[in-house]
Each structure stands twice: as structure tokens, then as C-alpha cells.
Specification:
Layout lengths: L2 H8 L6 E7 L11 E7 L3 H14 L4 E3 L5 E3 L4 E7 L7 E5 L2 E5 L4 H11 L14 H7 L12 E8 L4 E6 L5 E2 L2 E2 L6 E9 L5 H18 L21 H7 L6 E2 L2 E3 L7 E3 L5 H19 L8 E3 L5 E2 L3
Parallel strand pairs: 2-5, 3-5, 4-16
Antiparallel strand pairs: 1-2, 6-7, 7-12, 8-9, 8-12, 10-11, 13-14, 14-15, 16-17
Helix pairs in contact: 1-2, 3-5
The structure holds flavin-adenine dinucleotide.
Flavin-adenine dinucleotide binds next to strand 3, helix 4 and strand 12.
Amino acid sequence: MSFLNAFQNHRKLFHGRVLEQESLSRHTYYKIGGPAALLLFPNQLADLGVIADSIQESGETPFFFGQGSNLLFSDLGLTGAAIKTSDLNATVTIENENVIRAGAGVSVLTLLRQAAKSGWDGFERFGGIPGNIGGLIAMNGGTHLGDLRGMITDYEVYRFSEKRMIRISEEHLRLSYRENASLQAGDLIWSAGFKLLSGDPVDVKRKIDEITARRKATQPLDFPSCGSVFKNPEGTTLKAWEIVDQCGLRGKRIGGAMIAEKHPNWILNVDRAQATDIKELIALCKTSARERFQIELHEEVRCVSPAGVIESLI
Ligand SMILES: Cc1cc2nc3c(=O)[nH]c(=O)nc-3n(C[C@H](O)[C@H](O)[C@H](O)COP(=O)(O)OP(=O)(O)OC[C@H]3O[C@@H](n4cnc5c(N)ncnc54)[C@H](O)[C@@H]3O)c2cc1C
């Protein structure tokens, strides 16, 4: 039995929104992506139990995502189900004198506003990152000021195979540049604990405002995008944007997609771009970087196949 059929048998017990044949372009920053056969928005813990039963009966796991700010879905969409976690666990609480707990459905912007108001230090490193806490944890998101390392104490996942919450504690975190190797496939991030570092609210707000203003000035925010497309490569002092630039690709356009003039590590959806337009530009950058510099560029953006698998382009 497919997940779609299994879910229909449990649908009455599901509280969140259920959309069928829903265009994923409406749920991603890129505004790109064909229809998902089924798109679920769980909004309470009990909904995850319903999804767990459907997974168990079908043997199929849906694709989980947050605000879709780092995703490129296929023009064909998804043949199976997707779970958008933005309606789930949107609370920020002080767990104890050392830990702030933020739900997976909390937006990074909301957490930053709360940090500025309360004088929680250290959060400026996430200034200007779109998306939710779930996505931030999955991606080990960050800026030149740092990422999750040193800022989180743990995170909780809902493990569908065991129908329970599991806490990944600090000693089990395996975080590297835009990677979280401690996140197991099929686990859904539920919350994260952040270190409560008390600071002066005025100072914290100033630091957050500074990085946000710096980003607004340097980033091409006028068109839909996923932010940086490539990770900065290791073993070279060249940044990904410099490599793309020196390959002569700044401003290069394919279909409705364009490598940004303002920041060549960004590929913009300038005019109803298809996923294939973006992918062709990604492939062109990778081939050019190989030929010109013998450097392998790796995608930071996650390209999702119609089967719900994250794929790397050649
Ligand atoms: C304009 C712009 C600027 C950006 N700047 C930055 C930046 O400075 N630094 C940076 O790091 N990123 C940046 N990004 C990329 C993106 O915002 C981050 O990666 C963000 O953390 C993704 O959050 P999201 O909720 O949108 O996740 P999504 O894009 O929805 O998902 C990203 C990944 O996380 C997984 N995921 C999401 N939620 C869950 C969950 N609850 N459980 C399990 N897995 C989950 C998804 O399966 C996917 O693999 C930028 C993007 C844009 C559009």
C-alpha cells in the first residue's frame, strides 16, 4: 500500500491541513516546483502519530521540509507525499537558566526578535537567515559570524519508526559546514535547545541590526532565490562566488534564471524560471569550475527529485 492510500485510512484523525496535487511553487522561496501528490501540514504531536502509522503501513517516508528557503523541487513536483513543518511547534520558552527552547516551526526571524527584546547574546550569527528552526538545525545554518556550533545544547526529533521523541544531546551532535550528520534520515526535528547567554538588549539588538543591514546592502533580494547556491570549497582561498565570477558567469541567464550580478553565488528566478533552468546554470558553474580551476563546487541548495530524494547535479 502507498503512503497516500495508508494516510486516507487515517485522515479523519489528522488535525492539520491536507492538500492534494498542490503546487510546491507556492511553498518555496524559489517559487518553483510542480505538484506534490499530497502535502500535509501537521499542527500537533498527535498528527505525527497519524503520519507514523501511515509510514509503518506503507513503508514509504514522505519528504519533510520547513519554509522551503533552501529547496529546489523538480518541475514534476513529488509523486509521493510531503510534510511541511511550519505549523508545528511554534513556541519559544526558557527551559531553565541555561537553555532557550525553540520549536521547529518557529521562524529564525521570530527567534531573533525575541533575542533582541530579551538580550540573548549570540543569535546575531543567524541574522537575516530565512526559514524555520527545523531547517536551520537540518542545515547547520549560519553566517560569517558562525553556525550552530557553540550555540545549541541539543535538539529533539520525532522518530516515526519508534513513535516517540528522542533528544540528541550536545555530545552526539555532528555538525560541520552546512551539514548536520547527527540527523538521521526519516527523523523530524521537533525543537532545539539554544544556550542562554545573557547580554544587554540594546547591544544584542545593535548586533542583529548590523548584520541584517549588511546583508540587505550586499545581497540581491529583489528576486526569488535560495541564497547561496554553492558551499565555499575547501582547500582554496577562493570563495564560491569568486570562482563563478572568474569563470565569466556573472549575469549569465538561462530561461527565466540568472546568476546574480550583485552576488554570483546566487541564482535568481528573474522571470518564471523552471527548475531545469536553475539546474542548467548549476551544472554550467560546476563544469566551468572544474575546467578552469580543477575545483569541485558542491551545492548548498537541496535539489529534490520527484521521488523525494536530494540529488547532487553533475
Ligand atoms: C534570501 C536567502 C538568504 C539565505 N541566507 C542564508 C545564510 O546566510 N545562511 C544559511 O545558512 N542559509 C541561508 N539561506 C538558506 C536557508 O534559508 C537556510 O538553509 C534555512 O535554514 C532553511 O530553513 P527552511 O525552514 O526554509 O528549510 P527548508 O528549505 O524547508 O529545508 C532545508 C532542509 O532541511 C530539512 N528540514 C527542514 N525542516 C525540517 C524538520 N522539521 N525536520 C527534518 N528536516 C527538516 C529539509 O528536508 C531540507 O533538507 C538563505 C536562503 C535565502 C532564500
